What does this fold into?
Amino acid sequence: MSDNWLDLLGPKARREELASLTAEREGALAEARWAPLRELLARLSDIKASSVDIDRASISIGQPIDLNEEQSQRLRAALEELRPWKKGPFSLFGIDIDAEWRSDLKWNRLADAVGSLEGQLVADIGCHNGYFMYRMLAHGARAVVGFEPYARLRFVFDLLQGFHRFEPLHFSLLGVEHFDLCEESFDTIFCLGILYHHTDPVGLLRKLRRALRPGARLFVDCQGIPGTESLALVPEGRYAGASGIWFLPTLSALRSWAKRSGFSRIETIFSEPLSVVEQRPTAWAAVDSLEHFLDPTDSSRTIEGYPAPWRHYVLLKA
It folds into this structure.
């Protein structure tokens, strides 16, 4: 298998443009502001895992026995430097990292619908530190390309890969806005927790549809609101304490977006309120989280007075 994820794309992909954008983004990793993270990775270059288990709720890389006392202390100090850990959980050489988001709960909701990914080229949009990429690989994917424009998360992914390298996993610093350059390339695309952060969700879904190979599928997890009508909330400012949120649809509205984007088969997988069991502060993510952004007198409302968040999961096929 090629080390270059661009070689895995379909014949209609615009590789030269993608290669140019990739080189520009990769080059930025050498900037002085990222020197501390480069040095952190270098400090841990001698630590290697004797075993891994990626088909479990907490991605397990390495065992305590792999490390001497000095290495163990050095690893823990480095992992603490990388806080807050937002996605997980992970178990790294016996150090259990309980992230803010219980990403395993999200994957459990999707797993039956995902089924086997055997032989497939898979895209994970907004892959963060790579948690879901490991779960996708465990379902048999031929290769997984994670798209995440935030350079800091690339260093976290490289840290994990440094402990044990999974050749089929590829991390791209490109974003979802570049998917019109990947025409008919992927067998399955996951768009988890992304759609409501964009000003044109229908246009984004159209880009993703064009990036699917014939007969392929798209999994979408979108934060939204309750209700039976085809409506979307547009917050005036922050929503549940967060900026950069544009459209929060009802499930009906999300299904309408998908239909108007050209998807003819739309299957609802899950639609329920977001729980403080799934998103909460931890020792590894000492941050204000969902519990801080709900009205303390009425948990069905946010602190801004909007309906509290739901999560809608759908499976789409053209």
The radius of gyration is 20 Å. Helices lie at 15-27, 35-43, 69-81, 103-114, 131-138, 151-163, 201-211, 251-260.
